[in-house]
Amino acid sequence: MWAVATLTFFAIRLIPGDPAQAILGGPGSQASQEALDQVRRDYGLDQPLLVQYFAMLGRLLTGDLGDSYALKVPVAELLGAQIGGTLLLAVLSLALAWVLALALSLVSTGRGRIATAVGEGVELTAAALPQFWLAAVLIAIFSTGLGWLPPVATGTPSGLVLPVVTLAIPLAGFLAQVMRESLLDAMAQPFVISARARGESAVGVRLRHTIRHAALPGISLSGWALGWLLSGAVVVETIFAIPGLGRTLLQAVTLRDIPVVTGVVLLIALVYVVMTVLTDVASRIADPRLRQEAGR
Amino acid sequence: MRAAPVTATTTKRRAGIIAGAVALVTTITLAGCQAAEPEASGDPVEGGTLVYASGDAEPTCLDPHVGGNYPQALIAGQFLESLVSRDESGEIIPWLAESWEPADDQLAWEFTLREGIEFTDGTPLDAEAVKVNVEHLKDPATQSSTGYLAMGKVESVEVVSDRVARFVLSAPDSALLESLAQPWTAIQSPAGIARGMDANCQAPVGTGPFIVDEWVKQDHVSLVRNDDYASAPADAAHTGPAYLEGIEWRFVPDSSTRYAALQGGQVDVIDNPQPDTIAATEGDDAFTWIDAPRPGASNRIELNSGQAPFDDERVREAFIRAVAVNDGIDSLFFGTAERSYSPLSSVEPLAHSDETLFETDVDAANTLLDEAGWTERDSDGTRMKDGARLTLRFPVSTNQSIPAEQSLFEQVQATAKEAGFEVVISLLDLSSWYGALFAHEYEIVSAPYTKVGPDVLRILYHSDSITPAPSGYFANLAQLDDPEVDALLTGAASTSDPAERAALYEQAQQLILGGHYLLPLYDQQNSFLLSANLQGARAMPTVSTPSFSDAWLID
What we know:
Oligomer: heterodimer
Number of helices of chain B: 17
Helix content of chain A: over 70%
CATH superfamily of the largest domain in chain B: Periplasmic binding protein-like II
Low-confidence stretches of chain B: 4-38
CATH topology of the largest domain in chain B: D-Maltodextrin-Binding Protein, domain 2
Largest sheet of chain B: 7 strands, mixed
């Protein structure tokens, strides 16, 4: 977390843009010298960079993310108001991606060459779809064409459908690809034959036995997936006009609103850490072998 | 006003793909668009909430005194009002002030306020309120930029009586009324201002037809009707409260989403429609297009005359003769933009045009470049002189230039190449773009500038504007440094004789155009697409922001 804060702090100062101007109405501001001086004093921007850096670290250690330059409100308050929407979007998308990926790999694996080829083709295509294109097509079909769903998400459940589907489809493609491989491995294992020999149906084998094997790489990929979803949120939140962290980050970078950028980046790093722990736990639940090792 | 960060998020490639996707489900009719002021049909209907989808950046503060950009002006016009307004002919007309009179020496102006007007918090509109507003604009703590500049020659405001406020000037200012007509100098409740910046940014208090009720960041601002509204500008269609009960002002950064929402009836008005969208709705009764070019400067490419190679007028003229933009404007803007030959917007009555200076002639360009000593050519065909290549750096702001304009710049690049210019386009975000300008790392650049009245010429082309402001900002991007132009612009800004003012501005524009400092393209594009159920809406003739005080919705 410290490394992330440090990197962000120095990286944003490498790109052109004066923080004092960010405070005074954004880039290209024609603020007076008095206003600039006052702002530099108030925000400590007249101090040497290292002093500013340690001041920021000190604040962060006490849990203070500072105030937004542009919006003049505490960053914690700003992020607190926006994180719920983005997490909801990400979690729903991850859940839908899982359902789609499991369904696809269970249906198309080990059912002959044509099913495999179709399944692989669908996965590859889905994984390669750019979100902005997918969003435009979904809007064209379901909003403009059929009129079933609104293009602007206004906080209603129906408004979330298109954004969630936009994020979930490419992710489902990725997940299904890795699941298919381990599913194939598992299907070739002797336990499958013995299960079938006991009279288990083909579907039963998949649901009771091989699904765990298929899920394992998917679970470890989910930590990465959530990070991918948060970056995808920048695109999707902008297209569907959903309030959230992605748009907050985009606006903050444009305006060189350093405290907000640092805050969002730290928050995403925290989510990564939490997700890594969670996927670890989930892997243990799905794979008894890991539990035994831990028990020793 | 310098341009504001518009979140035109579509990249060109993306816009193309989306246009393709939209084309699947809509019928695109490509015909010359004819903008019309919507003809109100039938009697006004009371009630209903208008949903507005704005593609401009969400303001960081709703008080346009703070900073002062176009997104703020767009929404502030719904709840704040100015002392004066401007009608469609460019005449200044009464608004919160019913009359005004300059002193003989032009160093003081007395404004008489309308009687019986109250801010929506119950505070009376009086001369003291006007004084507090001007002081608020001039206070560094307010962090005003646009309004602060507009009040540059105003030293103080004196309270003559309850209803009469005297503006004391440091020098005669022929642009004072135009400055006061802008939303960035709108009059707010002193009690509202006294709440401090945080509260006032969240919900400024004015005299306007609507009141800020709630602002949900990144989502929407709820505006409710001011039932006591009684201060419509002199050119309004009706007096008294608005017909609409309220406005839901939504922030929808993506242009194709805005259009889809309008088509689906989710919103009633969108701003910043892209040219292909406007063309797609042409001839469709379900939509009305309000074309409202912004006042002030035209959109133009400025040639940096402060350094080589454009310190040589022959090279500037060669560039202007070499590039061809007319076909590009027609095809890329689908007939929604008209070529300009003036430094000023076509809405400015004092704009001077000269088409003859801008006829494309590659042979003439080649001759001029030969004369200027750019005679050698390298393997790419780029001209050289003393080992230096004829390279033009062209920083382009992706926040300000819509995809169609970026494509147009590529056509400029291609046509200039024929004469031996190498144009290097860099697509930059707003902060980086300003960084390039401040460092003088450009030979050509296009920067919009919105202001009411021809005084914008002084800001853009007076040599004083070459000196950077403390923030690094300078407006004279052509770096035009001509004492004769300075004298004309200063004279025009201080004369009290309208005929003399017009003559001085015309001469100044002749010199500016004749010196080949800029290539005018078109008016600063600004328009609104309305659902046909919305009647009576208009764009204000001041800075072309939308007004809904006369508007109503039909089912």
